[in-house]
Amino acid sequence: MAEPRERQVTRVARALLVGFGLHLKMMTRSSFDGLLGVLWPLFFATIAFFMFRAGASGESLVFASFGAAVMGIWSSTSTSAGSAMQRERWHGTLELLVCAPVHFATVLLPVTVAMSAIGLYSMTATLLLSRFAFGVDLPFEEPFALGLALVVTVVSIGSLGFLLAVSFVRYRTAWALGNLLEYPVWLIAGFLVPLTLLPSWVRPFSWALAPTWGVDAIREAATGASPWPELIACLGLGAAYLAIGIAVLETVLRSARRAGSLALA
Amino acid sequence: MSVRVFFVGGLLSFRALFSFLRPEVYVPSMLVAPIFQILLFVYIGRSAGIESDEFFVIGNAVQYAAIPCLFAMMFTIAGERFQQTLGYILVSPAPRLPLFLGRAVPVVVNGFFVAAFSLVVGGLIVGIDVPGRSYAPLALATLICAFSCTGLGLVGAGIGLLFREQAVLANIMFGILLLFTGANVPVDELPGWMEAVSNVLPFTHGIDAARRIADGASLSDVFDSLAAELAIGVVSGAVGYLFIRNAERLSRQHATLDRA
Fold first, then answer.
1. What value of ipTM does the predicted structure carry?
2. What percentage of chain A carries pLDDT values higher than 90?
3. Domain spans in chain B, listed from the N-terminal domain onward
């Protein structure tokens, strides 16, 4: 007898929430994800603040503050998401999770969203640094829209992390590929550099990245402009990453089951 | 025996324990990432309207030697514990000075290679103009920077014998070097206390010398800066060696050799 739809939804929602909470707790107790996750983007943010304070106007410092704040969300995702499945493999839990009664995407997505959410620590630290150490007068004109933009940005970056996690599953050193993506996305998503300064051929890559729209939405909401178009683009890209990720995951799992190679990479 | 332990033992340990040497890790982490670090700061510099592209290419290329120097030095010494070979090393009759310092030689060579590669490729991509007669002095300045940072790596290795999180420690040290040494922010733009700290860190004097060499200065013009950089390397190497010996002594005293 088929399970009632309502119960299926409850089961998936529960798996997502419990998985998110569990992994968030685990990461807060890890010095790599917790302490370094806060400190690492702070080093770069501090350098950027010094550079903008030395050269550009106060407006640029506000631009840099919000961009630097989102850098931490991407850092915590890119460095850890690439190896999310690899880690389960090392722990010997990958097979158990794959054969669990919920879809494996329901298990993996909360892991990568938790990785993004831990970046909120560094975001808070960066905003406090810019306000109190560099005296940047940060605007918070639309608190509700800003809060929504933050949630959408975190979830969309988490979805991008999910896509990375399933795409890199065949690479034993996926963590190195994840690390490699940190600087390029900081650069082309316009966190600290306006997209207009980059070569024109880079822009399509920027537009395909949810962090580009997420940081724009956060800036717009903070300064009182309308963040809704950017927010919708960010959300849409997040949903697209998720859909592509699930399709890739299905292919990877089917291939691994056929070849009996789930535990190998 | 000491010479053999120094050269052969050092090279073997480097190859065995520095896990980044596989192409699938080495290429993204040591050859591609520094280019993106250079590009990131070149564009931030353009956006903020400060300094030249050359300033950021040289600063970041030389400073990126910190990744191979810090990580490799920590992995090749403190990594013995993770391989469960630390006990065998420490009960062996091998003299300690060549045993530990020999591991630093391949680290310096690799750090120099990474920085030189980043400088050449980053310079070509961004399009900086360095006179041909500056190449050799620039290479020497880069080598001295790799040496001095390896000295700091020895300190990290000593601390790494006492603490579990070597990767966290190496990353924090890298961040401090990136912020304090003038790689991206001119040292005189930093607050006084940061400027004072920067003077005793690896890279500060070497990066300054490398920039002056690229602008046409001769080796004799930058002798003082290079000598200061070399001295920082020697002193931090000596401190690192003492740290390692002290960690060895403590581990015997408290029976904590394989624990951290």
1. 0.91
2. 60
3. 2-253
